[in-house]
């Protein structure tokens, strides 16, 4: 459901912003791509049932990143998470003053929100969160393995571009709309289209991956909406 306290545009903007914060923090913390994606998925699924007005997107993003590190066994200390997210806030807001007090406060808030997230998902996050990154490379090379007319260089380029689309997709709520494998297939389709490689509906190629054409359309429309949004930014609500 969409947060009843904010309009759809604000909801999408803030979720995209929070996802981007997790990605930036993940890069600075040198986290695996799957860990970053897991944190973003937790964020989107949490806000299906909780209000952006009640839970600040910056603090919740930090908590989701912390949980993802544990879930994917890509461990980082609470102090590291808090320090990086405080740095991101300081870097973005020229009026914000970084301090040890604020960092310690964020550490407590991360743990408080973590409890809310774990309780909300009945401590079953490992069963609920599955990253589409687990599928995309395997699917790409499986699909093009027997197509001799495409060089290995072209297929590698397609895989790289599909991976990029997939990273961008984690700024949307696609993970709450369709299954992870379908998101991967949709991103492969977008990558192929951008490179002029035809993947026609009539060939039913997507059925090999237990995906429907309707799911691919959902991916395309959602990604178009994301790219039309512009740069995500923090909004006070």
Quickly list its features.
Cyclin A, domain 1; 10 helices; 2 domains; 237 residues
Report what the structure shows:
With 237 residues, this protein is mostly helical. It has 2 domains: 114 residues, Cyclin-like (Cyclin A, domain 1); 98 residues, Cyclin A, domain 1 (Orthogonal Bundle), CATH 1.10.472. Helix content is 63%, strand content 0%. It has 10 helices and no strands. The longest helix is centred in the first third of the chain and has 21 residues. It starts with 7 loop residues before the first helix and ends in an 8-residue tail after the last helix.
Can you give me a brief rundown of this structure?
The protein has about 240 residues and is mostly helical. The protein has helices at about 10-30, 35-45, 55-70, 80-90, 100-120, 125-130, 135-145, 150-170, 180-195, 215-230. The mean pLDDT is about 90.
Q: Roughly how many Å is the radius of gyration?
A: 19 Å
Overall geometry comes to elongated
Q: Would you identify the regions where 5 or more consecutive residues have pLDDT less than 50?
A: none
Main sheet attributes: strand count, strand direction, barrel closure: none
Proportion of residues in helical segments: 55-70%
| Count of discrete alpha- or pi-helical segments spanning 4 or more residues | 10
CATH architecture of the largest domain: Orthogonal Bundle
Write the SSE topology:
Blueprint: H1 8-28, H2 33-46, H3 57-71, H4 78-92, H5 100-120, H6 125-128, H7 136-144, H8 152-169, H9 180-194, H10 213-229
Helix pairs in contact: 1-2, 1-3, 1-4, 2-3, 3-4, 3-5, 4-5, 7-8, 8-9, 9-10
Keywords: Cyclin
Organism: Theileria annulata
Protein name: Cyclin, putative
């Amino acid at each position: 459901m969409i947060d009843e306290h904010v309009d759809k545009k604000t909801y999408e903007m803030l979720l995209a912003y929070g996802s981007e914060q997790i990605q930036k923090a993940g890069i600075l913390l040198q986290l695996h791509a799957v860990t970053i994606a897991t944190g973003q998925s937790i964020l989107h699924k949490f806000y299906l049932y909780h209000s952006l007005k009640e839970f600040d997107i910056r603090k919740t993003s930090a908590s989701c990143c912390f949980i993802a590190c544990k879930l994917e066994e890509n461990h980082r200390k609470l102090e590291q998470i808090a320090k990086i997210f405080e740095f991101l806030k300081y870097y973005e807001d020229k009026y914000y003053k970084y301090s040890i007090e604020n960092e310690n406060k964020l550490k407590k808030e991360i743990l408080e929100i973590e409890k809310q997230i774990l309780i909300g998902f009945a401590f079953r996050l490992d069963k609920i969160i599955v990253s589409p990154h687990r599928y995309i490379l395997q699917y790409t090379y499986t699909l093009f393995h027997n197509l001799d007319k495409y060089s290995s260089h072209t297929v590698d380029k397609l895989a790289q571009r599909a991976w990029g689309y997939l990273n961008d997709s984690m700024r949307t709520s696609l993970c709450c709309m369709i299954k992870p494998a379908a998101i991967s297939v949709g991103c492969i389709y977008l990558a192929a289209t951008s490179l002029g490689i035809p993947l026609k509906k009539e060939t039913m190629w997507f059925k090999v991956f237990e995906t429907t054409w309707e799911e691919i359309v959902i991916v395309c429309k959602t990604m178009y909406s994301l790219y039309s949004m512009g740069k995500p930014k923090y909004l006070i609500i």
